[in-house]
Amino acid sequence: MDKKKIPTFTSRLPDVGTTIFTVMSALASEKKAINLGQGFPDFSCDRQLLEMVNEAMHQDQNQYPPMAGVSELRQEIAHKIKSIYRYQYDPVDEITVTAGGTQGIFTAVMCCVSPGDEVIVIEPAYDSYIPAIQMAQGVPIRVALEVKRDALGKVESYQIPWKKIEGAITEKTRLIMINSPHNPTGMIWKKEDLNHLADIVHGTEILVLSDEVYEHMVYDQKVHESVSSHPELVERSFVISSFGKTYHVTGWKVGYVAAPKSMTSEFRKVHQFNVFTVNTPVQYGLSNYLKEQKHYLGLSNFYEKKRNFFQLGLRKTRFQLLPSEGTYFQCADYTGLNIPEAKLNESDFCCWLTSEIGVAAIPLSAFYTKGQESGVIRFCFAKQEKTLEEAITRLYKL
Predict the structure, then answer these.
(1) Which of 145, 188, 238, 284 is the right S-S partner for 325, CB 3.0 to 4.6 Å?
(2) Summary mean pLDDT of the chain
(3) Residue 375's domain is classified under what CATH number?
(4) Residues 369 and 292 reside in one and the same domain
(5) Is there a contact between 122 and 178 (Cβ–Cβ < 8 Å)?
(6) pTM score, two decimals?
(7) Do the domain assignments include residue 387?
(8) Domain count of the chain?
(9) What is the pLDDT of residues 12-34, one digit of tens each?
(10) What pLDDT is attached to residue 94?
(11) In terms of domains, do 292 and 160 share one?
(12) 67 domain residue, yes or no
C-alpha cells in the first residue's frame, strides 16, 4: 500500500519558530524554576472585576456584541483618554475593542500596509511586530536603539537613534512602529521624543503605530507621554492599549485601538474578518470597572514598589541593573558576574540560569531579528513579593 502523501504548502512565516517565551516557560516548568521570564502576574485580579463580569453573564449579556465593541465600554475608554491625555476620541467612530493588544497591532498593520510598503521598527522590539509586517507583505526596516555603555563596556541604558530613524525613511515608508513604555528595556519616550517624531513625519503620508500597553506603569514621578496627547501625531496614529496588562488579566486578551475616523474605518474592515468581536460579558464588566479611575491611576505606585523591592535585592548581586522607567520588566547586564557562565551568550545563559539556579529570564537578543548580543537579560517583577524574594535568594548564589 502506498504511503499517504501529506499535503505541503509554502509557509507564510518561514523564519518563525517557537517563541523564546514558550521555550523558557516550558524549561522553567520542567526545572521547577521561578518564572520571571514571561510577562504575566502570578497574583489575582480585583475580585470586584470578576463580580462585574459574572453579573453581566447572569444578566444574559452572552451573545454577540457590536463588532466595534460594547458601546458603554467604548464610551468609558474615550472618557479615560480625555481625562488623562486631554484628547477627545469619538467612541462611536474612533475606538475599537480588540482581542488583546497583539490583535490590535496585527490588524492595524494589515489595514494600512500594502505589498512593498516599508515599516520602520525600532529594535529590540516585541516579537509580533515583524511577523505582522511580513503577513501584510510589507518590508520591515529595522533600526536598533543606541546602546550606552560604561567604561567597562557594560550596558548602562538605551537611547532613541534619531539620525538612523531619519535616515531610514524613504518614499516607500508607510508606517513607524513605536513602543512606550518600552518592552523589553523599560525606557520611556519623553515629550521631546514625540516632538522629534512629529517633525520627522510632518508633511508626509507616514502613519504611526504606538504600542502603549504599559501606559499605566511609569515610575519615579515621571509621566507617560501618549501619542494621544500630541496634537499632530494623534491625527496619524493607531494607539494600542491592553486591559490585560492594566488589570492583571492577561488571559482575557482584551484591549483597544484608538485612531482617527478614517483610519478606524479601514481598521474595522480587517477587524471584522479577523476576530469580528470580543467576549461580551468581559466587555460589560470592564465598562463598569473602568468608571473608577483609582483602579488604573494607582497602578504605577503599585508596581513601583515591586520594582524597588526587586532592585534592592538584585543590587546585592553582581548584576548591573539598567534603568526601569516603566513596564514591569527589569533588565540586567550579567557580564560582570564572577562565574564562567558569564561568558555565555544571552540565550545559553538564560537556559543555564533556569536549569541550575532556578530562575527563568529572557535574553534581550530574542527581541532582535538577528539576535544582537549585549550581555543583557530581562526579568519580570509582576509577581508576589514572596515570589520575588525567593528568586532573589536563588540569585544571591551568583
Answers:
(1) 188
(2) 95
(3) 3.90.1150.10
(4) no
(5) yes
(6) 0.95
(7) yes
(8) 2
(9) 998 888 788 888 999 999 999 99
(10) 98
(11) yes
(12) yes
